[in-house]
Every structure is written in C-alpha cells, then in structure tokens.
Design brief:
Helix content: over 70%
Order of helices and strands: HHHHEEHHHHHHEEHH
Number of helices: 12
Strand order of the largest sheet: 1-2
Shape: globular
Number of strands: 4
Oligomer: single chain
Strand content: under 5%
Length: about 300
C-alpha cells in the first residue's frame, strides 16, 4: 500500500464525509435543543433537488446553494411546526418528511424536466469548482462549521440557553426565555446545514440531481451523531470514519480474495451500512441524548 494510494483514499474520504458532516451537525443543533430530527435524509434530498434546479435555472452554483438552503429550511419548518407548535410526535414527523421528500422530488423533477426525475446535467458556473487542493468552497465551509458549532454551543450565552432547552425546558421558560423561539432557531440552523449537504451532493460532488441520491446518508449522519455523543469535534471524526469506509468500499470493488474469488459489488457497498450497525451496537447503550430530546414541552399554567 503505497503513499499515493493512501493520499487517494484520504482525499476521497474527505469528499465523501462532507455531506455526512453537514447533516450530522444539523442533527446536533436540532437535538441539542430537544428536537429529534429523523428528517435529515428528507431535507438533504429536497436541498439536493432544489440546488440543482436553482443552479440550472440561474446558471450559478451559488444561486443553487441559496435555493437549496431555502427549500431545506422550509421543509425543516414544517417539521418544527408539527413537533414544536403542535407538539406532535417528532419521530413520526421526521419519517413523514423523508417519505414526502422522496416522492416529491421525483414527481416534480419528472414534471419539470421529463428525465425520469433527474435534472439536466450541470456545467461550468452551474457547478462548484475547486478552490484549494482540488476541493470546492463548500468543503471548507462545512469544515469551518465544526469549530463554529463547538464554540457557539459551548462558549456563548445563546449556546448555553439552547443546550438548557434540550435538558430542562421548564427551567429556561421560568427564566423568561422562549423555549419555542430557541427550538425554532435550532431547526432553522439545521435546515441551513442540510442545505449545504444537499447542495454539495448535487452541485458540488455530482453534476445534477438523481432520484434518491442521498442513499441513506441522512441516517448514517444520525448514527455518526450518536457515535459522537452529540459533540462537534467527535462528530467530525465519526463522519470521516464513515467517509473512509465508503472510500475503501469504492476502491475494493472488483477485488478478488484467495479462496473466495471476486467480492460482489453489493457486499462492498454494504460495508458502510454494516459498520453503522456495528458501531451503534457498541455505543448506543453508552450514548446519552439530551434529556428533553423527543419530548414535547407543554408550558404549565
């Protein structure tokens, strides 16, 4: 295993970990405020479609990013309305968003472009080009979000209040601070980060939108969040680990093992998902989420 192979693997791992990291940080912001966000997959998918459609319509990758963020925030607010304002079941709301996104993007994409749900191929300014070391600007923006998240949640008054909402919303409400406002703020931030994740998939990494192109990344991001125990820096390491597994899976396709023969492509592609189950089986009993996560807050009268 030479140096060139290792550089290729780590470079590919970084590229593959970026959408996971953005979605993982989105889940961190949301769940730290007490809102469980199962709908990361759906928000990423909507953002990926909206970003590709926006980039194609406005002939600009940055315009596509803004459209993707707006779409992700909009569907995130639907989840916020159902789980915060209406005090509905957050798991059910998130699953509904995932199902809605999968069907809606395919139907709208086919209605607009008549290409089986795909968007037209993106070219030139419609895609994010490399700015440093062969990576696009989105890579560095998402990486920068890690220390920003760590600092804001751990060292600012706003972050302290947001974490308090996720642990003891009644105490925050008693102090005269709006629990609803803080939770909606966290949901909007999560929507922005999912917008970056989706835009990176369709406008940065690929050259357009494909139906269900997120391929379960939102759920892997949730697994990484649990593995990282709802902390920013460990989230970076967990997402890079999953990206590394995905990169190795891509490199091992077609590999022939002694006594076994060529490994089926399906078995190689299943490696990241199998590792997700193994890691969760090892840490889920030790990882303690915010105490108020998933519990609708009802103000006492």
């Amino acid at each position: 295993m030479d140096l060139g192979f290792l550089v290729t693997i780590f470079d590919s791992a970084l590229r593959l970990s970026i959408p996971l990291l953005a979605a993982c940080l989105a889940g961190l912001w949301s769940e730290r405020s007490g809102v469980v966000d199962i709908g990361l997959e759906g928000k990423m998918l909507v953002a990926a479609f909206a970003s590709a459609a926006g980039a194609y319509a406005f002939d600009s990758a940055w315009a596509g990013l803004l459209v993707g963020i707006a779409a992700s925030v909009a569907i995130g607010l639907v989840h916020g309305f159902a789980s915060i304002s209406q005090r509905g079941n957050q798991i059910v709301s998130g699953v509904a968003i995932n199902m809605l996104a999968a069907g809606l993007t395919a139907i709208v994409g086919n209605a607009w472009y008549s290409q089986g749900g795909r968007t037209p191929p993106l070219e030139g300014d419609q895609r994010f080009g490399s700015v440093l070391f062969g990576h696009s600007a989105l890579v560095y923006v998402v990486l920068l979000a890690v220390p920003v998240t760590w600092f804001v949640l751990g060292h600012t008054r706003f972050g302290l209040r947001l974490r308090a909402v996720g642990e003891n919303p009644a105490a925050v409400d008693t102090a005269g601070i709006s629990v609803t406002g803080l939770r909606y703020t966290a949901v909007i931030i999560a929507g922005v980060l999912c917008g970056f994740a989706g835009a990176y998939l369709s406008v940065g990494q690929a050259a357009g939108f494909l139906p269900n192109m997120t391929a379960g990344r939102g759920f892997i991001a949730l697994a990484a969040l649990i593995f990282a125990k709802w902390r920013a820096w460990p989230a970076l390491g967990a997402c890079f680990l999953f990206g590394l597994l995905d990169a190795f899976a891509n490199q091992l396709q077609g590999l022939s093992l002694p006594g076994i023969g060529e490994v089926p492509v399906q078995a190689i592609q299943a490696m990241p998902y199998l590792m997700t189950v193994i890691l969760l089986a090892g840490v889920i009993g030790k990882a303690i989420p915010p105490r108020a996560a998933g519990i609708p807050y009802v103000k006492e009268r």
